[in-house]
Design brief:
Helicase, Ruva Protein, domain 3, disordered C terminus, alpha/beta, six-stranded mixed beta sheet, Rossmann fold, two-stranded antiparallel ribbon, globular
Length: 369
């Protein structure tokens, strides 16, 4: 045989590598090779298995929830529990959205590709000293896909997703917010490789003014310093900030990001694509996404999903699981009515709308006699 067993230690070693390889090849099957990227790399040619395909079909270890749980147990003891209270940590397998579920602009797609290449060639970037890579700021109104894109990127790149809990990071106690900011970045470094996502980034990185409390200025300064000291190249952490209010960001915060990515409201073509995507599993008679897109000017991807929800629920009330184009048109009208109410400035405006058809003559003043 081609093995030798050490009776004292109980270990087994190969004494004839070529014979061992021949023995394995005679007994292996192509499906076993394709299920193991290492075997595909060595034996792929003999079994007609492509290494790249095998690698893509097998997620890396950091994508596994058990791997994340192991890291949390290894790197965070009882004294560190308060650090984990500041973030929500999810493995790629736990993220329900992928980039295939999102309609991106050309610029957004290009940036996602650049990020993927930067991660793939991180060692090269380190060699040439290009460390200021991997700090992205997503800018756009609510519902335009900033959070979904960050999560979809984590899913595609098989990276743990570390999302900051703003409700936990901001503290009523002087100086605590700055300390919490430092802890968040420390968590990301311990869990690397990962994506650190900070939604409502402007909430912490607000513009500093002369009359602000020193604690607020200290929190902003700590955030800027923490951003400076973290890097995709040296720390294996991809930082993504997102904001609905770019005008409220501190000017120095803008300069910390190597890429500012716009998330505008979708145009008519994008809306048609989004409608087609979100309805892909729904039976719809006489479906015309272009016509629906033409009636939804100003709506975001999130809004369009709400429109679909309304149409589906209305159909279910009638015991129908097949929708019609008219169902979706009616749902658009209902959504616009609700959106109008949301945008009213005061209750008096709502009352004015309710009674807009009435005049003072409809309700004459009582006769003083």
């Amino acid at each position: 045989m081609f093995t030798d067993r050490d009776a004292f230690a109980g270990s087994i070693t190969l004494v004839d590598d070529d014979m061992a390889i021949d023995w394995f090849v005679d007994r292996a099957a192509a499906d076993r090779i394709s299920a193991n990227p290492v075997l595909a790399f060595v034996f792929g040619d003999e079994f007609g298995v492509d290494y790249e395909t095998a690698r893509d079909a097998n997620r890396p270890v950091q994508a596994d929830p058990q791997w994340i749980d192991g890291l949390l147990e290894e790197y965070f003891d009882e004294d560190d529990e308060e650090m984990l209270d500041l973030v929500d940590v999810r493995s790629p397998a736990e993220l329900t959205v992928s980039l295939d579920d999102i309609v991106l602009t050309d610029d957004q797609e290009a940036e996602m590709s650049k990020v993927a290449k930067a991660i793939e060639h991180r060692d090269y970037l380190a060699t040439i000293g290009l460390n200021e890579v991997g700090k992205l700021l997503f800018v756009g109104p609510p519902g335009t896909g900033k959070t979904s894109t960050a999560r979809g990127l984590a899913h595609q790149l098989d990276l743990p997703f570390v999302e900051v809990k703003l409700s936990m990071i901001t503290s009523q106690y002087l100086g605590e917010t700055a300390k919490n900011v430092e802890k968040v970045f420390e968590v990301a470094k311990r869990l690397s490789p990962c994506i650190l996502f900070m939604d409502e980034f402007d909430f912490v990185a607000t513009t500093r003014t002369g009359d602000e409390h020193n604690a607020i200025k200290r929190a902003v300064n700590t955030l800027l310093k923490s951003i400076d000291e973290i890097s995709l190249v040296t720390d294996d952490v991809l930082l993504i900030g997102a904001t609905n209010h770019p005008d409220e960001l501190d000017a120095a915060a803008w300069r910390r990001f190597d890429e500012i990515l716009s998330f505008p409201r979708p145009d008519e073509g994008m809306r048609a694509d989004i409608i087609s995507l979100v309805t892909s599993e729904v039976d719809i008679a006489d479906f015309d996404p272009a016509a629906l897109a033409a009636e939804t000017s100003g709506l975001t991807g999130s809004d369009l999903r709400l429109v679909l929800r309304e149409a589906v629920l209305d159909a279910l009330v009638e015991d129908r699981t097949e929708l019609t184009q008219d169902d979706l048109m009616a749902a658009i009208s209902e959504f616009e009515d609700r959106d109008h109410l949301r945008n009213l400035d005061t209750l008096e405006d709502a009352l004015d709308d309710t009674h807009s058809d009435h005049t003072h003559d409809d309700h004459p003043a009582p006769n003083p006699e």
